[in-house]
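Ticket #4471: structure export looks truncated?
Reporter: QA, pipeline team
Priority: medium

Steps to reproduce: submit the single chain below to the structure queue and open the exported record.
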Amino acid sequence: MSPVVDDTRLCCDALHRWHAGLADAFAHLDQPDGLNHLAQAFAELVPVESVMISLERKDRPPQLLYLQGIPEEFRAALIERYFTAGYLLDPFCLAVENGLAEGFYPLAEIAPDDFFDSEYYRTYYLKLGCAEDSYYIVNLDEHSKISISLFQGLGAENLNAAQLSLLRAVEPMVRALVREFSGRGLQRHPLLFDPPAEGLVRDAEVSRRIQAAFSRFGCQVLTEREREAAQMVLRGHSVKSTAREMNISPETVRMHRKNLYLKLGISSQSELFAQFIDWLRQG
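Actual output as written to the record:
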């Protein structure tokens, strides 16, 4: 049997199990464990290690609706990554803030070109035992959305092209289930009305904080263009990508990087990242 035929059969088997799991999820939408059945359906489709589902609403704190598979020792750091200082550099959060349409997105599709070599990736992904993310984003109305994050741990293989295609292909069904959940089960969800954790940032402040953070960081010593270059470094852009985004030459980018490191008294991206996160927390 050829590899193509074998892959096709595996995909068909996975889709058969997915549809059975999806039907089970629809049947349990009114139940407190409804989202658990959706997470189990994903596990039938591809080898997903863990799942996080969040509700985001305008002028209210994001709320964690479901978390499965994240080791206990990483949970606090994961929440910090999404809901406190770390989110300001998260590619998915930034993409949503910039108007990312609902759909399915592997991290590699929305992250800057040097992101996987960035200090943010090392700190908020690898140190948390996570190697890869994929996301669904579903709009409920103009003020609210639900995001579904699928994580691959360091011990798991990255999803291949066929598996990502499967996740993308079922996006309309995921969207339909999530919207049905918002109408039938969301208001009865056991976590929905829990008091928000201290330090969560309201959605209405996201845009203001992102812009203020990058415009004021190092403002006493850095020029405006040097701050822009720092922002590109922190977000995971290469010299080439930074040059394109800032509409300057790669040589000028290197000069800005050299100057900002000198003025901040640092010598590495990890020190720049540490200074930025400390500055955010103090602000």
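Status: closed, not a bug. The export was complete when the record was re-opened. Leaving a note from the reviewer for reference: Residues 1-5, 192-204 have pLDDT under 50 and may be disordered.
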